[in-house]
Amino acid sequence: MKDAPRCVVEIARIKMHLPIYRDEETTREIAREVEETIARIEDESELIDTQKNAVLAAFDYACQKRALEDEYEADNRELAKALERVTSQLKTLISNFPGEAPVPNDK
């Protein structure tokens, strides 16, 4: 990662050479989101503590990531249940045909 392409961004008044994630535009967009998060935290705080604000921003992103992971897992469980229902219905339909299931004619 040390030799990875980088771009220069400024977050919380600190200029950084960040590794490019996907492409430069995406990297800059992420940097803007982090900047906005830190700005919001600074607005809510009475003291300016750069290290604390960075930790709070990291925690905020970790919470967002966890929420998305939880949502993803719930969606996967729901999808698995739906596929199970479809499979069960297909088995029922197939079992209602006497003998072998008909093969469609491509003509």
Order of helices and strands: EEHH
Number of distinct beta strands: 2
Largest sheet: 2 strands, antiparallel
**Average residue-wise pLDDT:** 89
Low-confidence stretches: none
Q: What class, by secondary structure content?
A: mainly alpha
Radius of gyration: 26 Å
Termini gap: 56 Å
* Helix amount: 55-70%
Our count of helices gives 2
- Widest sheet, order of strands: 1-2
Strand content: 5-15%
> What is the approximate shape?
elongated
What can you tell me about this protein's structure?
The chain contains two helices and two strands. By secondary structure, it is mainly alpha-helical. It has a two-stranded antiparallel ribbon with strand order 1-2. A hairpin with a 2-residue loop joins strand 1 and strand 2. Helix 1 packs across helix 2. It is elongated, with a radius of gyration of 26 Å. It starts with 5 loop residues before the first strand and ends in a 12-residue tail after the last helix.
Features:
107 residues, mainly alpha, two-stranded antiparallel ribbon, 2 helices, 63% helix
